[in-house]
Amino acid sequence: MRVLLRLRRAARTKCDKNGAMKVHLIDGTYELFRSWFGAPGAKSPSGQEVGATRGFLRSMAAMLRADEVTHVGCAFDHVVESFRNDLFDGYKTGEGLEPELFDQFPLVERASRALGMVTWPMIELEADDALAQAAAKFRDAPAVEQVVICSPDKDLCQCVRGSDVVTLDRRREIVLDEDGVREKFGVSPESIPRLLGTGGRRSGRDPGYRAMGGEERVDGARQVPAPREHSRRPRTLGRAGSWWRDACTQPP
Fold it and tell me: 3-class secondary structure for 6-51?
């Protein structure tokens, strides 16, 4: 408890020193799986496996100590299935998921809240959807200097805008801005959905156009101009502390 209080006091101090802020958005489900495979196992007094949750806590506590980390939102897949399971046969499910890992889903959400992070447990949508919407919501907020999406998922590269919205692979310490996305994938961020749509994704078991019998090559995505962006800009949200609290009272 003393550690959590120190982290929260430090966040308030850092925010008071600098009006502009970075909003960090965490893929909590990815971090849980990362800890499941990387952190040592551990048992609670009741005998429940909690090693992945403890690994998540250690990783997030270390991140929160960084000077630039003051405002953090963390999204979780509260359940594995989503509306996409009705659209795609063979889309990812909880089949084969270790019970010791699945039982930590609600526990890690409690851990996220205990650290003082805004926590979004997603049911009908996925954690990626929450991160994408939060990035679009906060990128033009007057007090925000940068939105950092902490996930290596290439799907989320479509959210990158200049250097205002970037992705961060925390494990490899790789930051991708808009130029970085073009260098890595050969397309602009807006074209990432078409690039993945033509080739499919093994991680989410999306079939992709080519796997469904289409004759287009993946390179075709690089030849189609990106659509014009029509997203509405958010209203001015006021002072830094108040707009963040108001904006995070509901899922993004």
Answer: HHHHHHHHHHHHCCCEEEEEEEHHHHHHHHHHHCCCCECCCCCECH
| Interval 195-249: pLDDT, tens | 888 765 544 444 444 443 333 444 444 444 443 333 333 333 334 445 455 555 5
Pairing assessment for the beta strands 144-150 and 118-122 based on DSSP bridges: unpaired
Amino acid in position 176:
L
Task: Dig out the tokens for 148 from the structure.
Answer: 């950092």
Q: Name which of 108, 144, 100, 103 is nearest 28 in CA terms.
A: 108
What share of the chain in percent tops pLDDT 70? 71
pLDDT in tens, 179-189: 999 999 999 99
Domains, the chain, in order of start with CATH, read: 2-247 (3.40.50.1010)
DSSP 231: P
Rounded CA separation 187/45 (Å): 51
Q: How many of the other CB atoms lie within 10 Å of CB of 79? A: 15
